[in-house]
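Quick one, probably user error.
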């Protein structure tokens, strides 16, 4: 017998539970960092060699003029700061990895989905923005760890006293921008390797 005081929904659906059903979330797209890590795991050994050589070259190009690597050619009037060394090393490693993303993978390299074939014989297409970001990051790292009064561009822009008063305090921010830009460019490139490595099957929407 139907309860005369029941609402229309309760009268027509007496077995309906007052608790809404729990809907399991559908698996979504992997995070950007996780996708980048997936791409790194598919790298062949020669790409790591290229990354190491490029990182070493960048470390020398930045470290020698800024005297982070002691040498008889260059000098600096203001001593290095403790944070100069980790920024120099991190920027060099990120730039080296970024350079290696432009090396074409071999045909035998495994794709992130575990398959092998011609789909891996290409690199992600880009508009050059990531390359420019990486280049800007390397240049900013050079400005960030260099002697503020030994940089001729800083001296021309600010003068000697201005380089100490204005440019030197801004160098930690330049370091953060350098690492951020290089890291962002690297992640974008690695993410493109995963998303572009395997084409979609015919008739299947990506």
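Nope, works fine. Designed sequence:
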């Amino acid at each position: 017998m139907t309860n005369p005081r029941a609402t229309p929904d309760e009268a027509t659906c007496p077995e309906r539970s007052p608790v809404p059903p729990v809907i399991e979330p559908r698996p979504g797209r992997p995070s950007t960092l996780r996708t980048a890590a997936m791409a790194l795991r598919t790298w062949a050994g020669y790409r790591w060699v290229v990354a190491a050589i490029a990182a070493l070259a960048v470390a020398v190009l930045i470290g020698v003029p800024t005297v982070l690597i002691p040498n008889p050619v260059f000098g600096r009037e203001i001593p290095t700061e403790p944070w100069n060394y980790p920024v120099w090393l991190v920027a060099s490693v990120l730039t080296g990895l970024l350079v290696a993303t432009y090396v074409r993978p071999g045909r035998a390299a495994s794709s992130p989905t575990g398959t092998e074939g011609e789909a891996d014989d290409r690199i992600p297409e880009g508009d050059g923005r990531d390359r420019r970001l990486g280049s800007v990051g390397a240049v900013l790292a050079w400005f960030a760890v260099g002697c503020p009064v030994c940089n001729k561009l800083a001296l021309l822009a600010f003068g000697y006293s201005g380089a100490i008063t204005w440019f030197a305090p801004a160098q930690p921010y330049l370091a953060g921008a350098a690492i951020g830009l290089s890291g962002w460019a690297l992640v974008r490139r690695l993410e493109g390797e995963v998303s572009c490595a395997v084409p979609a099957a015919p008739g299947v929407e990506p």
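The first helix runs from residue 8 to 12.
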